Amino acid sequence: MRAMRPLIPAAGLLLISVLVGCGGSRAQDRSIEPPASVTSAPAAPGRTKQSPEATTKPSTASPPSDQATSSPKPASPSCLGDGVPDRPSLAGARGQAFAFAPLDDPGEVTVEGRVSGSAAWSTSKVLVVAAYLDSVPGEDPDRVSTGNRRLITAALTRSDGDAVNAIRDQIPGRPGRAMTSVLRSIGDKATTAPDSYQGTMRWSIREQVRFMAALDAGRVVSPQASAYLLKTMQPIRAHSWGLGTIGATAYKGGWLRRTTATRQMGIVDGYAVAISTDVGPVVVQTDGDAAHVEQMNRLARRLQKRLAYERACS
Q1: So what's the pLDDT on residue 34?
Q2: What is the DSSP letter of 238?
Q3: Residue 188, Cβ density class (10 Å: 0-12 exposed, 13-18 middle, ≥19 buried)
Q4: Which residue of 24, 51, 202, 262 is 20 to 30 Å from 99, comparing CA positions?
Q5: 218: containing domain
Q6: Percent helix, strand, coil in the chain (nearest 5)?
Q7: Cβ–Cβ < 8 Å for 244, 178
Q8: Do 124 and 155 meet the contact criterion of CB atoms below 8 Å apart?
């Protein structure tokens, strides 16, 4: 916005220069995870964006503040209205939710919307495999047997339950403790894995975003193990809905029945992301269980638009 100072009389009518001021900063949206009754433990420490109230982002050289800094970052032309739509949001929505964080700033997690449950379902298969890789000598996937590599591929691409159980049963000691140890190593203090029926574990979409960001950074087990997991998280065509329709480079879904939530976590366009919904029609999957495919496709497109907005206005 431009502001003009009034003409100031001096010794005669002298016109002084017009002062033009223009500036802005990225509007951050902040919201919270589903209520405590949805998850088994409080969220781990971290910066979570809140509701859609516009605030100014402080300079990285100054302490955090809700007030504008003396030298605000100019808003990009696109963010000022060059064809960019209003910010897509799920703030206050029920039955659907998304979470995301930029890979270059994974502590900046945004969570919007609310879904009735946070059971991991088949997204937990990635954690099972990670815990198994943690027991491999040198944490090196190249030292995994050919047979076990086939089981891992089946678990992460076809969501094969028998395959992941075979891998889980090879984890030394208590599998739940091993999986929880992997989570604690990347800062997740909220999620605890069981020794069996790992699909029932409560794993919030906020923590799943942090997990995916850690995978991208090579911090899950080892850089080699993280890269191997990301490379293998390529669902078969029948499971390529949701994040698969918006160009995710790696993702894994989880589902059960029409009365439970369908969810996915993955990597999309420089962001770690997770989406979940428990509304809409369901489609039977290859394992005989059902997923909210149509709504997940819609939710993924909504997320894609939001990420485009975030990039334009950063």
Answers
A1: 36
A2: G
A3: buried
A4: 24
A5: 121-312
A6: 35, 15, 50
A7: no
A8: no
> Would you put residue 42 in left (φ > 0), alpha (ψ -120 to 50) or beta?
beta
Rounded CA gap, 265 and 55, in Å? 28
Is residue 167, in this structure, part of any structural domain at all? Answer: yes
Instruction: Give which of 254, 267, 140, 141 is closest to 211, Cα–Cα.
Output: 267
- 108, with CB counted inside 10 A (0-12, 13-18, 19+), is middle
**What CATH number corresponds to the domain at position 203?**
3.40.710.10
Token pair of 159 as six digits:
């969501």
How confident is the model over 102-154, as pLDDT tens digits?
A: 999 999 999 999 998 899 999 999 999 999 999 999 999 999 999 999 999 99
pLDDT in tens, 200-240: 999 999 999 999 999 999 999 999 999 999 999 999 999 99
Encoded amino acid at 249, one letter: T
Quick check: is 41 in a domain?
Answer: no
Flag whether 113 is in a domain. Answer: no
**Element (H or E) spanning 109, and its range?**
strand 108-114
Secondary structure (3-state) at 101: strand
CA dist., res. 211 & res. 310, Å (int): 21
Q: What are phi and psi of 66, to 5 degrees?
A: -85, 0
Give me the number of domains the chain comprises.
1
Which helix H or strand E contains 252, and what residues bound it?
Answer: strand 250-254
